[in-house]
């Protein structure tokens, strides 16, 4: 696939029919949208506008790395299949808690190729997962339930032997392989939970397993796989490259490729989660909230639950920057994200599975999108509830359920949340603690313009009043006005509004920057006085977390252009968040984009960001 220049249009805007209740017709406390269906058919229609963002860049031609663990050679020589439509995650966003991307099933006749619902029900009932996996407990969350006025039940898949539900699908598929296939071995590609599931399943079945993982995989993750007895191959900068290697080696050696989600036996294995919920839940159930990456877990749960308890809503939850399923449902076909946010790396999937999408568009009830901040808040909620630390993808459905209950004013109902995994990278806890209170709306990030004169700082503090300042940054600017960047703690949103009104009455202009990721990731650490750098182009890059990544970046742009700003923000992920400024004349921008294309690091230009202008430029 050819890398694309930033700001280059990918394809024409596409408008599809998609069942979305009017997004702002339901206020907080409003009734739940009525689910009018006959059998599996919905009747409400509305146009879903899915516009493709122009700020995109595709990483597909990164050079393959020859590591100390394996030599890749020409593993990626096989030509790729024609790619699906590429879409920006920003092209489809909902208010927090809003149930969107409701599939349009009015024209579905159920006649597509693939297993029918009864076949999946039979496969789930006959699954072999309990030879290795446990029946995870369904636990009430009393603190959350009291706070929300809803009975929140936690389906504890984080308590599985490998701390993730992924074990179910991997083992179910592998246990059904003929003996002669098992003797040839298995292979998969994964950056985490699926790898551990395959490795443990192979150990139980006494077969040889090879796990292809990107070289950017944190050491703790690939070592965990290695300790389970599998052969770990570190290859490529991305999951796509690792997958290409695994599929090629599968053909060369006759190994069986174990996909992470898009296979009937994998889906059936994950579907045992739904079977257990139906058996364990006593009393009526309003909804099951399921994290969505490739769609294997939600497809399996829906295939069982909708067959035996069709009144139960099956609601997917995706990060707002990794919403491949929501966009696919709105487009009426599978799409590919131009880039997927990697904070919740367990669901950072650009394209959902073919079979999983077929099931989801017929069975699931919609998608709730949540922010990174909301995920962090739910990780904290789970810790306070059970003293357990979930990984971001593991807390995803809890964040969605909390937002949904608040948005629709749901009370007195039973809601199940899948806590899908607890393989947390320890380094990521830093950003979780920083953003948890922001996500819970107990902390706000603000900027106030104050006059540069004696007494103004004291007056500012008096206006903040009883609110607790949790972070404060100010630097003399040698001008008439200065910008103060600060965080305040709060118990109620009304407190923040009252403080802003006090500032306004005193003619101190105040900006709420709580939802601005550029501020939270970078600018809060760069407050040191404004400057005006000639021809400065500001970009956000994602660097692979591996030795040599910075040197490769510098080789691409230096000494051709002067670097005027550089801020590295490690987040315990496979990719580091970088803010960089380069002095580039307008006539050189085409050359810059071409060099960035060859570099093949995901990036976006943010020079015109209003907050950057406010905080950093004169």
TrEMBL record:
Keywords: Amino-acid biosynthesis, Branched-chain amino acid biosynthesis, Chloroplast, Isoleucine biosynthesis, Lyase, Plastid, Pyridoxal phosphate, Repeat, Transit peptide
This protein's name: Threonine dehydratase
Designated gene of the protein: LOC111463330
Location in or out of the cell: Plastid, Chloroplast
Pfam families: PALP (PF00291), Thr_dehydrat_C (PF00585)
Biological process according to GO: isoleucine biosynthetic process; L-serine catabolic process; L-threonine catabolic process
UniProt cross-references to PROSITE patterns, sorted A to Z: ACT_LIKE (PS51672), DEHYDRATASE_SER_THR (PS00165)
ACT-like domain span: 444-515, 537-608
GO CC field: chloroplast
Major place of residence: plastid
Reaction(s) catalysed by this chain's protein: L-threonine = 2-oxobutanoate + NH4(+)
Co-factor requirement: pyridoxal 5'-phosphate
Family classification: Belongs to the serine/threonine dehydratase family.
């Amino acid at each position: 696939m050819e890398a694309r220049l930033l700001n280059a249009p990918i394809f024409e805007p596409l408008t599809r029919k998609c069942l979305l209740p009017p997004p702002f017709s339901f206020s907080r406390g409003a009734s739940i949208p009525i689910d009018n269906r006959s059998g599996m058919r919905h009747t409400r229609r509305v146009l879903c506008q899915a516009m493709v963002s122009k700020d995109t860049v595709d990483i597909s031609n990164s050079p393959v790395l020859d590591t100390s663990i394996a030599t890749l050679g020409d593993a990626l020589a096989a030509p790729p299949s024609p790619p699906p439509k590429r879409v920006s995650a920003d092209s489809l966003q909902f208010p927090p808690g809003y149930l969107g991307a409701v599939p349009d099933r009015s024209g579905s006749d159920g006649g597509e190729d693939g297993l029918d619902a009864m076949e999946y029900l039979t496969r789930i009932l006959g699954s072999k997962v309990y030879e290795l996996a446990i029946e995870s407990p369904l636990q009430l969350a009393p603190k959350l339930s009291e706070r929300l006025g809803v009975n929140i039940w936690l389906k504890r898949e984080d308590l599985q032997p490998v701390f993730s539900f992924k074990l179910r699908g991997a083992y179910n598929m592998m246990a059904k392989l003929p003996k002669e296939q098992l003797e040839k071995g298995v292979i998969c590609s994964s950056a985490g939970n699926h790898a551990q599931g395959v490795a443990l399943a192979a150990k139980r079945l006494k077969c040889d397993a090879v796990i292809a993982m990107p070289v950017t995989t944190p050491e703790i993750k690939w070592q965990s796989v290695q300790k389970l007895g599998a052969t770990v191959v570190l290859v490529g900068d991305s999951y796509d490259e690792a997958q290409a290697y695994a599929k090629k080696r599968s053909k060369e050696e006759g190994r069986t490729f174990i996909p992470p989600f898009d296979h009937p036996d994998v889906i059936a294995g994950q579907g045992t989660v739904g079977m257990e919920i139906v058996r364990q839940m006593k009393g009526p159930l309003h909804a099951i909230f399921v994290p969505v990456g490739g769609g294997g877990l939600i497809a399996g749960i829906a295939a069982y639950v909708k067959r035996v308890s069709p009144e139960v809503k099956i609601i997917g939850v995706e990060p707002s920057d990794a919403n491949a399923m929501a966009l696919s449902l709105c487009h009426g076909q599978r799409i590919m994200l131009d880039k997927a946010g990697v904070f919740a790396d367990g669901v950072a999937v650009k394209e959902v599975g073919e079979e999983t999408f077929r099931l989801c568009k017929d069975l699931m009830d919609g998608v709730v999108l949540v922010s990174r901040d909301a995920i962090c808040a739910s990780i904290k909620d789970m810790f306070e509830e059970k003293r357990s630390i979930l990984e971001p993808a593991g807390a995803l459905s809890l964040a969605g359920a909390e937002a949904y209950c608040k948005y629709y004013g749901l009370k007195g109902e039973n809601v199940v949340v899948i806590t899908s995994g607890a393989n947390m990278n320890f380094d990521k806890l830093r950003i979780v603690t920083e953003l948890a209170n922001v996500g819970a709306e107990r902390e706000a990030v603000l900027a106030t313009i104050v006059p540069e004169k004696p007494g103004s700082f004291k007056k500012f503090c008096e206006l903040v009043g009883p609110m607790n300042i949790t972070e404060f940054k100010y630097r003399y600017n040698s001008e008439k006005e200065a910008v103060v960047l600060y965080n305040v703690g709060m118990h109620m949103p009304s407190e923040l509004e009252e403080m802003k009104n006090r500032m306004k009455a005193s003619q101190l202009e105040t900006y709420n920057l709580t939802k601005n990721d550029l501020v939270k990731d970078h600018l809060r650490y760069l407050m040191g006085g404004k400057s005006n750098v000639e021809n400065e182009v500001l970009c956000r890059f994602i660097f692979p977390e591996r030795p040599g990544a910075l040197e490769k970046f510098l080789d691409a742009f230096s000494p051709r252009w002067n670097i005027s700003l550089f801020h590295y923000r490690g987040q315990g992920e496979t990719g580091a968040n970088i803010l960089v400024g380069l002095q580039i004349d307008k006539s050189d921008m085409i050359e810059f984009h071409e060099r960035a294309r060859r570099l093949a690091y995901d990036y976006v230009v943010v020079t015109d960001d209003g907050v950057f202008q406010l905080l950093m430029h004169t």
